[in-house]
Design a protein that fits this description.
Cathepsin D, subunit A, domain 1, 7-stranded mixed beta sheet, two-stranded antiparallel sheet, 9 strands, about 45% strand, globular
């Protein structure tokens, strides 16, 4: 399976001042991680700090907040990690679900899905 790269628009919590950011889709990440500098410049507040497990198994404390994302023709509020300099920008699984998108591993693309309710 290849890597899926896409562009999202991230804005302030009110959905103004949108800025385009290229992200790697990472279905192993719970939250979307975006550069701290971009989020701070947009006025996104830190809501709290949480523990995050990295791929190597170690734990890291990260700041999270909520802001507006535009992806796949949809605009919604989602939780974001304030990524530090040098860390990748990642689109996490919660944002994918919020946008009603899934990964198509054959075509390395995002595809629309229908919401489920059981």
């Amino acid at each position: 399976m290849g890597t899926v790269i896409t562009t999202i628009e991230v804005g302030d919590p009110q959905g103004r001042n949108l800025q385009r950011v290229e992200v790697e889709v990472d279905t192993g990440s719970t939250y979307t991680a975006l550069p701290r500098g971009i989020l701070q410049a947009l006025g996104v507040p830190v809501n709290r700090a949480v523990q995050s497990r990295l791929a190597d198994g170690s734990l890291q404390t990260v700041d999270i907040g909520q802001t507006t994302i535009r992806l796949g023709g949809r605009e919604f509020i989602t939780t974001v990690i304030f990524a530090e300099e040098g860390e990748p920008s990642l689109l996490g699984v919660i944002s994918l679900e919020d946008a009603l998108l899934a990964v198509d591993p054959v075509n390395n693309a995002l595809i629309p899905v229908v919401a489920r309710r059981y």
